[in-house]
Every structure is written in C-alpha cells, then in structure tokens.
Design goal:
7-stranded mixed sheet; 14 strands; Aspartate Aminotransferase, domain 1; alpha/beta; 42% helix; 427 residues; 3-stranded antiparallel sheet; binds pyridoxal-5'-phosphate; Aspartate Aminotransferase, domain 2; 2 domains; single chain; globular
Length: 427
Amino acid sequence: MYISKRGMRILDGNQPLVAAHYRCASDPWHPESNPKGYINFGTAENHLVFDLLKNRLNASPDIREHHTHYAELHGMSDFREALASYLTDYTGVKASAEHIVTATGSSAILDMLMYALCEAGEGMILPAPYYAGFDHDLKTRVQVEPVPAYTRPEDGYKLTLEVLQQALLHAGKRTIKVRGIIITNPNNPLGQTYDRETLEMIVKFAADHKLQIVADELYMNSVFGSQPYVSLAEVAAEAGADIHLVYGFAKDFALSGFKAGLLHSTNEKVLQVVRELAYFMPVSNATQQILINLLRDKDFVKHFTDENKRRLKSASDFTHALLDKAGIPAEPTDAGFFVWMNLSKWLDSETFEMEFQLYNFILEQARVNVMPGQFFHNAEPGWFRLCYARNEQMLETGIERIRTALHRLDEARLTIDPDSQSVSESE
Ligand SMILES: Cc1ncc(COP(=O)(O)O)c(C=O)c1O
C-alpha cells in the first residue's frame, strides 16, 4: 500500500520524551505494590495539587442543550471571555476574547501558529536549551526549522544580544530565512524567568530584524523564586510591538490531560488563519464548560495559584536539599517544575554520546527517568532535567536511586558499556 512521503516523514521523527514517558507508565513505581517500578522525573507534569482541584472539577459543569451541538470551533465566547479575564489579571496586559483562539493544547496552537507565520523551510529562533517538544511542534507538519540560540552554563545561561545575533548569522549560513523568535518565559528546562531588561532586548532585537515574537508563557503562574515573572506581552505592549501569546491549562492548572490551550494575538490575519485551522482540533464543549466554571471563580483561582506556588517552592527546596546531600550540583530554580542538574563529572568523556549512555544507565540501572540536556539542545553535555513536582517519598526514593547508581560509577571507576547499557570494569 502506498503511504505518502509526508506520512513517512512523521514516522521518521522520534519524540524521546514521549517514548520514555510511556515506558515508565508501563511499569510505574509504587511504594507498596511496585517498589522496583520506574520513577518518572522526565515528564513536565505537576502532581502536587489534585486535592485542591478535585471538588471543583467534579462539580456539575452545567451542560445545556446547546453545548451538545456544534459551537464556535475556535472556542465558545463564554470560554474566551473567561480566558481573556484570566490573562488580563495575571499578565498585566488587557486581553480580549476576540483576540483568542483555543485548541486541544498548546502544541496544537504552536503547530497552527507556525502554519500562519512561516513557509516550509523557514526558521524560528529558540534560545537553547529549549523545550524538546518544540522540535516536534515546528517540524512535524509545517516543516519549520528551529534555529537554536545557544546560552551557556558558564554565563549562567544568560540570553544576550550576541547570542541572538549568532543564531541569525548561523541561520544565514544554512540559508534559512528566519521569521521569528519563540521565548519560553518562565523557561523550560531551566526553571528560570527572564528579567525585564532581557525581555526589552528581545523586543528590540525582533523589531530591528522584523521578526515575529511568540511568547510561550505556560508557566506564568508557577513562579515562586526571587526573580518575578514579567510577561513579554507587557514589555512588548510598552514598546508598541505585537506578540503572539501561547498559554494553556497543562502546567499552571496541572491539567495536562484536559488538552486545552490558547493563542492570544492582536494580528487579525494570523487570527483568521488559526481560527480556520482550529476547526480540526477544537476543545470539546464539555471541557470548556468545566474550565469556565473554574476560571469564573476568581477567589478559587487566586487561592489555588498561591497554594500551588507554595507547594512547588517547597518541593523544589526539598529536591535541591536532597541533590545537595547526594553531591549533585544544580542551577537555582525560580519557576516551573524543573531542576537543571549537572552530572558532567560522571561522564568519562565530555561528549553527547557519553551523556546519552549515562541517561540510559540511570534509566535502566536506577529505573529513574531524567532527561539529558541534548534533548533540549543544550550546548554542553552532562546536564539533565529533573521534574520535581512529585510527593516527597517519590523524590527521596528516586534521588537515592540516582545517588546509588552514580556512587557505583565513582567507587569502582566504572565505564558504561554502550552495547549492554550495563556497568563493566574499565581496567
Ligand atoms: C514550554 C511548553 N510549551 C508547550 C507545551 C505543550 O503543552 P500542551 O500539553 O498544552 O500541548 C509544554 C509541555 O511540556 C511546554 O513545556
């Protein structure tokens, strides 16, 4: 049977994060019933707040007859109004319902937005390390080229004008026309927020080079550290620039399974294209109703958000303390669900091959999934992302398993046998 070339191209692309997630899900750790199971610190999900959400989500979503029929496929007006009000409250910029398109998750939004902004083969700059799913969202269907702008550990991963200019230069050498820049603020995988000065620099750089700005602010309400969240929307508005803001329920509301995301854009043409495409991936009316009920209770949202931040901070502090005790260095965390840790001293040589072997070793020997920096296009090998929004018992068990596995490498001065992914004596 003939299968299209574009179909086959999709099969070629692999999503290592997704593969590891399902592997862990097939044999998950449980302290009593499956103490040897996989511990998944690889997936960016928040497991700390279901008790807060449970009653609210199970309250009747008030389904009326019209909800059972076709509604506006880019989001019912009630839903978009509730979302606009939420965005206005938390970004500091006036948002409006007519500038919003909703779809089944932020990945769907990014896929449609790339369709509107770029031709196939054109590029978007992404400060690296960046969220691994962007490769998939940009390339899979619309064939947009990610152009990494490499920030470096020795500079504290600071995003500078030089870093962005280098990326443009590099794209030019690859004869890629760059159409825009995607900023993830707060950042995944670094767990850090951008300061106002950096955001101003980004807006100016984009204006100077006539680039579109996409702000992925999925973690805007998961900020708890010393560096506060400032929305790129606010900084762009002050400079009179347009941006395309991407948001969703997967992170700040811990509702990744609800698959609901949004675009807020002030460009009417872009909105028209994305509204057309949203026909293929609308959020179901029942899900919209549940989320409307949630958003309209502003006191609940405020209480939930504050408590979520408190729990994230506590889990982050707990994780940093455990890593410290285990002798594992890590960058400070201000936001998100991530600790960005440095395992480079356990690499026999500073190569991405070695990093990949260490990743497999930890996955198979410790049965813990932590994602290697290469999946996020980190400039140097040895860094790993640990998603810590888990209960303390799981954090203790998982980090102890990692510590023991790394200790075995230290103790016996072992190397990792790439074929068997097991441990063998080097000399
Ligand atoms: C920065 C960022 N953008 C987008 C997504 C995808 O979100 P969704 O599940 O809403 O498609 C993720 C998920 O991890 C993310 O971290």
